[in-house]
Structure to design on (181 residues):
């Protein structure tokens, strides 16, 4: 049985206004947030990527809402397969890492930090779209301030893969390599 919110996700499109409309609905109705999380990681659901798009926009506004759901999020990010879902959740990983390390709005456990780190490295070395790789690079840069082994590994990957990637990847790679040298 589909919930009313789940049915509404059918009409979400990739346009920012469309995604924002449903993010606003969740922001106005916080009781929808757990359902949004559930839909994001229900990979058999045809709208899981749309739920991830909405989740990304909610994360910009209310990162603190994620605190009690971090175990579910961090343990399931590795299971995403849809490119659109991965792109959105890779951005969520960056936003959550920023909220943890820089803004102190949430607290990620050691295990959660490790899960994000492993998944970001997976996205970086697998055949993932460039935007997801760029968010993963930025997230790993932040995580490397906590895990001393991350920056050396990230540097190796960036230097090895640099020549084979797009201008966007190269720009982010250059920026992060300057910061970690």
């Amino acid at each position: 049985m589909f919930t009313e919110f789940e049915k509404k996700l059918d009409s979400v499109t990739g346009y920012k206004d469309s995604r924002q409309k449903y993010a606003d609905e969740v922001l106005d109705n916080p009781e929808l947030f757990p359902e949004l999380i559930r839909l994001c990681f229900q990979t058999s659901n045809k709208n899981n990527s749309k739920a991830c798009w909405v989740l990304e926009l909610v994360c910009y506004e209310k990162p603190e809402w994620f605190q009690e759901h971090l175990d579910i999020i961090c343990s399931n990010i590795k299971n995403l397969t849809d490119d659109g879902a991965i792109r959105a959740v890779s951005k969520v990983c960056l936003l959550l890492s920023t909220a943890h390390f820089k803004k102190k709005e949430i607290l990620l456990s050691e295990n959660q930090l490790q899960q994000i780190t492993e998944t970001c490295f997976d996205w970086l070395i697998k055949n993932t779209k460039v935007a997801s790789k760029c968010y993963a690079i930025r997230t790993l840069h932040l995580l490397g301030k906590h895990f001393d082994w991350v920056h050396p590994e990230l540097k190796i990957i960036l230097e090895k893969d640099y020549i084979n990637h797009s201008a966007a990847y190269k720009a982010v790679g250059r920026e992060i390599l300057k910061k970690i040298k």
Q: What stands out?
A: The CA atoms of residues 22 and 142 lie 30 Å apart.
